[in-house]
Each structure stands twice: as C-alpha cells, then as structure tokens.
Amino acid sequence: MARAAGRRYGLASPVSLAFLAAVCLTAFGVREAQADFRVCNATQNLVGVGIGYRAKAGWVTEGWWHIEGSTCKTLIEGPLSSRFYYLYAEDAERGGRWDGPINMCVAEKEFKIAGVNDCFARGYQRAGFQEYDTGEQASWMVQLTDEPADDGEAAVTGQTNP
C-alpha cells in the first residue's frame, strides 16, 4: 500500500463538536447509548480506517474498515478495554489522510497484525497513527472532516455508560 499523498485533512475542532454531534444524531439516527469505539466520516468520500490498541497479548493493529461518506461505523464493540487507541485513515477518492506521529503496521488488504515493530521486515507497511486518550471511558467517537482543526485537537467525543 502506498501512503496517500496530497492534501492532509484535519479533524474538527472541539468548538464545532456540539454542532457535529447534533448533525450526527439527526443524519445517522438516534440510537441507544452503548459502549463502543465509533468513527464517523463527515466527508462525502469513501474512507479506509485502521485502528491500533494494546491488548492483553501486546500491540494490535486492525483494518481496513470502509466508511462511506456521511456515515459511521463501529470499530470496537462493547466497553473499551484500553485507555489509548490509535487511528489512521485514508480518503480513498482524493488521496488525503488523517494520521499522526505513532508508527504502527498496516497491510494493503484487510489485516489484524500483532506487534508494531519491524513492520517492513515482516512484510507490512508502516503508517503514522494519531493517539486518542479515551480517559478510560466506555465509549468514544472520532469524527473525520475535510476541515483542519483550529487548535490541532481532534474531534472526539467520549461518553460514559449511563
């Protein structure tokens, strides 16, 4: 998999988070609160998403979830078991990406990879993932947008189980 080149996308600012949450509730339907890690794609393009996390046996990266424009997908179902999660996404149509400074392994096709070291030697590619501190909440959502964040912060929401 070649790393996406071109325009780099940002994640919405916290100020616009309330507005985006209202749009999501209206556009994607209100659902009962449940524990999970969701990614919402507020762009009009298909996006491929990979996630990384620390499991009992060590580091794991998984992908690709294909998320159509203006939709959400659950990447991890149930209460979150880690405090930190890592996300990497690519715009399949325009070639932009949502990335960060934490290097983890990815593959060209669907993958679940144990470990984050020696990616190339093991036949994988390496991508920069963005860290999300869920604060040990049971649920978390990341909103992917076309607009860069004003303050560099990601558009994320976390909610505890009611």
UniProtKB/TrEMBL annotation:
Please, which domain of life does this record's source organism belong to? Bacteria
Stored InterPro entries: DUF1036
Give the record's keywords alphabetically. Answer: Signal
The signal sequence is 1-35
Q: Please provide an example of a Pfam family that matches this protein in its UniProt record.
A: DUF1036
Protein name, per record: DUF1036 domain-containing protein
